[in-house]
Amino acid sequence: MSQSGQLYASAILVKILVVGSGGREHALAWKLSQSPRAERIFCAPGNAGTEQLGENVPIAANDLAGLVRFARDQRIDLTVVGPDDPLAAGVVDLFEGAGRRIFGPNKSAARLESSKIFAKEIMRKCHIPTALAGSFSESDDARSFCERLQFPIVIKADGLALGKGVIIAQDCDEAATAIREMMNEGKFGEAGRRIVVEEFLRGSECSVHALVSGGTYQMLATARDHKRALDGDKGPNTGGMGAVSPADNWTADAQEAFDRDIMRPLVQGLMRCGVAFSGLLFPGLMMTAEGARVLEFNCRFGDPETQTLMPRLKSDLIELIEATIDGALEDVTIEWDQRPAVTVVLASGGYPGPYEGGKPIAGLDECAQLDGVHVFHAGTRRENDRIVTAGGRVLAVTALGDNVQLARERAYDAVSRIHFEGCHYRRDIAVPPVAGNIAGH
């Protein structure tokens, strides 16, 4: 361990607040709880999984004033924000103004995720490879731009739309409908009043996470997410139906190019623009025949990538977070379990469309006894003496194995032991992408 790491490890115990209620937050709370410095963990609002690690508190993730008040009253030493909405709304600014320690970018830096137009402008200034695109506040201008591109094309709401603000239009009619619904009919509220129209990129997606503190960053392990609802990357986009780490479409050459062409120009460009980024930066990439292209920037841990990464992380997460906040990333070393991990998401019937909650879940105790398997809760709640479904994505089952095939077999064996009415999941998580397979975002 580095000298800085030794100082962190020998420091006083910390009380931690994790903001959010999904599988990502359960995985973060689980990893934080493994630190010898974790005195007590609170989750706001949490789920049936996080309550096994600490105490759930009935404060919504977007109740910023309530979160600050709780952190002050309970003398919380460190707050970790999971979802994007609180970051975009300025929760970090409020906490820092109240003198409370918090991990995540401030409102200005979080625009990298909360405004796709802002992100495109930063990429243009920094010459970061991305899709050809145009930004629009008038629907007529957007429709005219569509006619200049080869279909299919991608239409994105500028703001946050719960992961649903991306439409792949196959022809002019579909593009016109998407533009009208977003810009004129308010399908995504204010998030869709301005849009980005861009070319459709072909390749396979890759998720990369980095801890960023000003002009310094440290890469985390890679992952590959599966966003479509059905096997073979078919069906509608979801928040993510599973993941594998390390990504099977990532190479040493890709890493070198990523550092040279994306990460270093980005952190240096943000500094030049007066944007002080501190927290987790997660560029979503499309691995094309011409190399990596940035699809979007996320300013928080991915979901379900986090459920895949945390079981592989050997380092103390508190130490890494504090080093990020303190601008001491160069003093820490991040260690990983070399075994791959595979995560399979179990979803409610109907997801990503309408679904019913309140379905009892069986098999959780049996899975808890399996070696190398972790079940992270997402859309769950405790109802009397049983755990029931309470969301679209219900559970994320992660397994480690000596190779990807063994990890897949272990994950799907665990999945077969869990039952609730309407449960559905993909059966091809971690199957390598087919060469030339069409994907887009």
Structure description:
With 441 residues, this protein is α+β, with helices and mostly antiparallel strands. The chain folds into four domains: 92 residues, Rossmann fold (3-Layer(aba) Sandwich); 68 residues, 2-Layer Sandwich (Dna Ligase, domain 1); 128 residues, D-amino Acid Aminotransferase, Chain A, domain 1; 75 residues, Phosphoribosylglycinamide synthetase, C-terminal domain (Glycinamide Ribonucleotide Synthetase, Chain A, domain 4). It is built from 14 helices and 23 strands. Strand 1, helix 2 and strand 2 form a beta-alpha-beta unit. The N terminus and C terminus are likely disordered.
Helix content: 25-40%
Number of helix segments?
14
CATH topology of the largest domain: D-amino Acid Aminotransferase, Chain A, domain 1
CATH architecture of the largest domain: 2-Layer Sandwich
CATH superfamily of the largest domain: ATP-grasp fold, B domain
Biggest sheet descriptor:
5 strands, parallel
Gap between N and C termini: 40 Å
Number of strands: 23
Total number of distinct structural domains: 4
Radius of gyration: 21 Å
Question: What are the low-pLDDT stretches, counting only 5+ consecutive residues below 50?
Answer: 1-7, 435-440
Rounded mean pLDDT is: 94
CATH class of the largest domain: Alpha Beta
Structural class: alpha+beta
Strand order of the largest sheet: 3-2-1-4-5
The best one-word shape is globular
Approximate strand percentage: 25-35%
